[in-house]
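Possible regression after last week's pipeline update?

I re-ran a chain I had predicted before the update to compare outputs. Posting the input and the new output here so someone can diff against the archived version. Not blocking, just want to make sure nothing changed silently.
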Amino acid sequence: MTEDMSPAERYAAARRRAAEEASALAPFREMYDFELDAFQIEACKALEAGKGVLVAAPTGSGKTIVGEFAVHLALAQGRKCFYTTPIKALSNQKYNDLVKRYGGKQVGLLTGDNSINSGAPVVVMTTEVLRNMLYAGSQALQGLGYVVMDEVHYLSDRFRGAVWEEVIIHLPDSVTLVSLSATVSNAEEFGDWLDTVRGDTEVIVSEHRPVPLWQHVLAGRRMYDLFEEKGGRREVNPDLLRMAQMENSRVPSFRDRRRGKPMREADRERERRQRSRIWTPGRPEVIAQLDSQGLLPAITFIFSRAGCEAAVQQCLFAGLRLNDAAQRARVREIVEERTASIPDEDLHVLGYFEWLEGLERGIAAHHAGMLPTFKEVVEELFVRGLVKAVFATETLALGINMPARSVVLEKLVKWNGEQHVDITPGEYTQLTGRAGRRGIDVEGHAVVLWQRGMDPGALAGLAGTRTYPLRSSFRPSYNMAVNLVSQFGRHRSRELLETSFAQFQADRAVVGISRRVQRNEEGLAGYREAMTCHLGDFDEYARLRRELKERETELARQGAVQQRAAAADALEKLRPGDVIHVPTGKFAGLALVLDPGVPAGRSHGNRGWDHHDGPRPLVLTAARQVKRLASVDFPVPVEPLERMRIPKSFNPRSPQSRRDLASALRTKAGHHEPARTRRRQRSEAADDAEIVRLRKAIRAHPCHGCDERESHARWAERYHRLKRDTRQLERRIEGRTNTIARTFDRVYALLSDLGYLRGDEVTEDGRRLARLYGELDLLASECLREGVWEGLSPTELAACASALVYESRSADDALPPTLPGGGAKHALGEMVRIWGRLDALEEEHRIDQAEGVGQREPDLGFAWAAYRWAEGDGLDAVLREAEMPAGDFVRWCKQLVDVLGQIAAAAPEGGTVARNARKASEKLLRGVVSYSSVT
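New output (post-update):
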């Protein structure tokens, strides 16, 4: 090859080789036993040239190589590197990886749970830890040369995403930023923003998967390819399209045939054979098929914790065994070693032996409700090839390094906390990205189970759309505001917030909206000309017609409001023991009132979307269901039909209690007929003076007699509609300009009213707030300021602090939570009172939780469990009463320990709170909660 070069070309090539050999990249490449991909080399070269980099590439493509090169550069230059991750489990995993490569002296770990060698030149940490260090001006930042932000696309997360932007904005200019992201469709836009706030940033996008991914649909016993290659183009498999068409078509019935639509016997037989091949295979059947085709190990995503556990049990009952005797022995050895620190009595409570049986067979579940130790053992065994089938919720797809040969999706619909929704192309890409292990598998396989009503075309759209947009979720919080003002003053803080990615995206969107406004104004001129009438001012005539319509609509709405108000008044008069007839809804029929419900007003502080205009009675239906009803179930007033005594021993959670009381209800009031709806009253519009005036003015207007009146009216309606749309666009332009800064102004005003800020000065109370992080930072600060927690014992303080972190997963139709008595109960009541005051103040300052700013209502649902655990009660008793999985319990306890640490640091000197917060943490950190997940 070199013989074909000219002397000048050979000299240039020699210079390039010499430069590469002298670079830091050459020895780094020798540390790996595989060749680096082109995008990895490009990113590493940009880093060595002193540029920041944004690397957007598919899951499993090896983005972290670029982050590890930043670590290599830092050590070579005698500087520090912080490697940040979104979740503690990923931090632990990356810490272990770097320790194996560079040794324990060179690498440290900082998460909410662990602090190991924090002064090391390379420290792995969660992103929140780095944010807190930046605000505190930590000495650890000295000598920092590189920051790696793994999974930077987390900044789209509406709960935690703001932290990523805070770090990016506030990092010193001398720090080189390495941003690693999943493939996003607007990587260039994100790169442009990074270039603006961080300086020269190279954007490297790779769509290439190192291990090709094949898409399949499993129907019955057959695996169908989703796509077929035809003439160099990918098309949906016609077999799948035929199957969908056949299943969705209606089989002619006996009645159809009587109407002259006979079905030939041959057609019927062919239809029967086709249908016999189409069904959704069961979970054990799916794993057995994958095993027979050599497609294990596999991760099956089930969007339900209970579904994951049930899947393991189904496989065990089906007799599936994926491990041989030697593998079973090795599994037991590893499990016993990893769980040695858990007391024997707790192992029984945690379902250890059933879990171990599944592991020995090579089958496991993986979800957030599991004990962290159990999850980590599953991850380790899966990576070692000793667990071959994992049933997991989608949380497994977020960062943890658990690649498989195959990924199975049972359904393409998931519950998002409010309703069942289709998964997005981004979620599909994230989930299926686990398929295909680099260096092990030649190809990966994504398998979707056939479901009735499946549309292969829609599935192909999901599989073919590999990217999704990155959207900022950045909003200024109270803690952020006081920290910013403390460091930069109000004016500079405002300017800094306007450099956020959220504002960057909003400003770009304004350009497109302005173009639409210009087009609309051109359209308005044409509509005005078309509606011109030779008899008079048609715009004025059209306005009269609109006013008439609006007045009639308003009167109809008022009538509906009055009806609802009457229904609400009737509900407020209900008492426990009243027998009523629910007029409509899913639970229509006889019902017994157990609890009249909360008073009218707002519930849970979620302004703008959770208002209710009356009580929400808790009832027992004649069908033995205990449900919290809403005002929509009572469109008309309801009156008690009978009175019944509710036994003191009645337990709404006991099926027997519900059955007995429902039987008594049917016996007592089953003879009552539902009340008939009252006849509609005469419309108020007929007697309304304003409507009479408008009708008279319309008839008297010159344009009323125009032959083309209705044609003009249609043009006038279009003109009015376009004018309204244009005004809305103009308001959007005004709303998007300086949005983040205006939100900051409202937050600043509220904090000033409360005495946390005074001009550019942060008060003593403000400095306390600066040390409190979390959703309820301001509530915690107010509780400290008012001495709500003074005098509480450590266990009582643990119960109260739990309300600052806990959020229930269930709907709000449950019974009131059990609370500890004494000082804790009083303090929890005070916390709710203070929250109510803050909630009203936020409403006054137009701070809206729907926009991601503000304080949600404290949730008291974990207070009793936290109190009992801190008191030293056994795990079995605590979990049974809390009705909570062990994994959730441990996670909430660890978050509680974290917030207690913040309270201890922020509490005023001379009081009891700081000392008792530290004692409460010690009491909580025992048993399964105290286990360190770093191995």
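Follow-up from reviewer: compared with the archived run. Confidence is low (pLDDT under 50) at residues 250-261, 600-612. Marking as no regression found.
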